[in-house]
Design a protein that fits this description.
Structural class: mainly beta
Number of strands: 2
Strand order of the largest sheet: 1-2
Largest sheet: 2 strands, antiparallel
Number of helices: 0
Low-confidence stretches: none
């Protein structure tokens, strides 16, 4: 049995971000479906 093909508007895999010695993201993967509203919000509510 084959799985259905998934179509994403945007897909990011294994993203890492460092600011000097500070790691902000480590190995993050995310996929965004089309025609939906998405937000990335920090712990204090900042985007």
């Amino acid at each position: 049995m084959t799985s259905p093909e998934l179509n994403f508007a945007l897909e990011c895999r294994d993203v890492s971000v460092n600011y000097g010695d500070v790691t902000a993201l480590a190995g993050v993967s995310v996929a965004f479906a089309p025609r939906l509203i998405h937000a990335v919000v920090g712990q204090n509510g900042a985007g």
